[in-house]
Design brief:
This protein is an alpha/beta fold. The chain is built from twelve helices and twelve strands. The strands form four sheets. It has a five-stranded mixed beta sheet.
């Protein structure tokens, strides 16, 4: 098949025709396109062969367009506009005008501590965007990011998927809390006192819970639980209304301590911190809108109250 059997010209050919229409001579049109006169002549010759039309005829010191070329000019300009604005725009992103929905995976704690700051900053930069926090766990993290159900995820996730990109955000500390006027719990507790105390337990911090249970067993005490809940945000209120103690993230304590009568109780050992990260899939790593979201999450997560490392 002859390469000119296909009547559809290439973009460079259309640009050459439009440049010569505008500038009138190859000498002026070539530098305007950022190319050489020989290259411009090559594209014009391709177009002549494709359509069997001379395209231009010399009149005085200018090249005048033939009737065919005059008819070609408008659709050629339209095609180039589409390429430059619509298709070219796929690689650009304007936060100020976007109406994009950003889907971010996280747990309950992230929704309480991170989302409010993210919403405030997003409204400043992208007032028409929509933020959709989605409850996420380690088991569905990889598949949700790969499928596009999530743009990113932020939190502590026990994932071993080597395909996922990740970025450290901050260290999350944990503290033991009791109600401020607790009748028997003071400012410190031994492992024996902690083992005997009535406690609120949550399965949403398994790494920290496992560490506490290991410390108690090392001290020859058995872990005990009075109450169990998956709603970690409810624990400070439960503790403040009872004689129970609990271990929660420090950021949750700091957020609620102005309205809930709590105190921090020091244990024999400092509870290890965990690293909070954000995760995303390589498939969308170069997407400018997702890059914008990642940078925004990093910015708000690193605000002073989170910078504990």
């Amino acid at each position: 098949m002859n390469k000119f059997d296909d009547p559809q010209p290439e973009l460079a050919d259309l640009k050459a025709v439009l440049a010569l229409i505008e500038h009138g001579t190859v000498t002026r049109a070539a530098p305007a396109l950022g190319t050489t006169q020989s290259a411009l002549s090559y594209h014009l010759d391709r177009m002549r062969k494709r359509f069997g039309d001379p395209l231009f005829v010399r009149i005085g010191n200018r090249m005048a367009a033939t009737p065919f070329t005059q008819r070609l000019a408008e659709p050629a300009a339209r095609v180039l506009r589409i390429m430059e604005t619509e298709i070219g725009g796929l690689q650009s992103f304007d936060p100020a005008t976007t109406r994009r929905e950003f889907r971010i995976g996280m747990n309950e704690l992230g929704a309480i501590t991170l989302v409010p700051k993210l919403v405030r900053r997003l409204y400043e930069l992208a007032p028409n965007a929509v933020l959709s926090p989605i409850q996420t766990n380690s088991e569905n993290l990889s598949s949700a990011l790969e499928s596009g159900e999530l743009d990113i995820a932020a939190g502590f996730f026990a994932t071993s998927d080597p395909r996922l990109f990740q970025q450290r955000l901050y260290q999350r500390d944990y503290v033991c809390i009791a109600r401020r006027d607790h009748p028997t719990v003071g400012q410190t507790m031994s492992w024996r006192e902690f083992s005997l105390a009535r406690k609120v337990h949550t399965g949403s911090i398994p790494v920290t819970t496992g560490w506490l249970e290991a410390q108690l067993r090392k001290a020859s005490f058995m872990p005990s639980v009075t109450m169990s809940t998956q709603h970690i945000a409810a624990i400070p209120f439960i503790v403040a209304a009872s004689d129970m103690v609990a271990v929660i993230p420090r950021e949750l304590h700091d957020l609620l301590s102005p309205i809930v009568a709590l105190k921090i109780v020091r244990l024999p050992k400092t509870i290890p911190a965990i690293t909070i990260r954000q995760y995303w899939h390589p498939r969308i790593a170069s997407d400018p809108s997702v890059k914008f979201l990642r940078e925004l999450v990093y910015e708000v997560a690193r605000e002073p109250e989170h910078a504990r490392s």
